[in-house]
Amino acid sequence: MADALSITVQGQENIVKNIFASVFHIETKATRAVAYVLQRTYDLSQEWVPVDTGELQQSGYIINDGLTGEVGYGTDHCWYQELGTRNMAANPYLAPAFSVSN
Questions:
Q1: Could you tell me if 33 and 64 are in contact, meaning their C-beta atoms sit under 8 angstroms apart?
Q2: Which region, left, alpha or beta, applies to residue 66 given φ > 0 means left and ψ of -120 to 50 means alpha?
Q3: Phi, psi of 69 (to 5 degrees)
Q4: Rounded to 10 degrees, what is the CA torsion of 8, 14, 18, 19?
Q5: Which long-range contacts (CB under 8 A, 24 or more apart) does 94-100 make?
Q6: One digit per residue, pLDDT tens: the chain, 102 residues?
Q7: How far apart, in Å, do the first and last CA atoms of the chain sit?
Q8: What is the DSSP string of the chain?
Q9: Which of 80, 74, 75, 65 is nearest to 34 (CA)?
Q10: CA–CA gap between residue 42 and residue 72 (Å, rounded)
Q11: What is the rounded CA–CA span in Å between residue 48 and residue 80?
């Protein structure tokens, strides 16, 4: 047929390879960024956590799952220090550390 028009696309495999390589690169950088923020938050919060007996400071932990993570403290009174109570002023250590680390 002389009046036909056709378009041929070649190189799809290279495009797909490049997309996957880019995604891997982005995920690697994001994983490193998450690890950095988690460690920095933990380190600063360890400096700023109120210390009386040392129990609160020693209960600090990091959970790093790659693209997500958690920095926390595992005592019954960690929230009282961070947020305060009606009888005690707050001594924030975790939220400020996270704010500075971002």
A1: no
A2: left
A3: -170, 180
A4: 50
A5: 94/41, 94/45, 94/49, 96/44, 96/48, 97/40, 97/41, 97/42, 97/43, 97/44, 97/45, 97/48, 97/71, 98/37, 98/41, 98/45, 98/71, 100/40, 100/44
A6: 567 888 877 888 888 888 888 889 999 999 999 999 999 999 999 999 999 999 999 999 999 999 999 999 999 999 999 999 999 999 999 999 999 988
A7: 63
A8: -TT--------HHHHHHHHHHHHHHHHHHHHHHHHHHHHHHHHHHHHHS--SSSHHHHTEEEEE-SS-EEEEE-STTHHHHHH--SSS-----HHHHHHHH-
A9: 65
A10: 8
A11: 15
Structure tokens at 85: 């109570």
Given the structure tokens 């690697």, which residue do they identify? 28
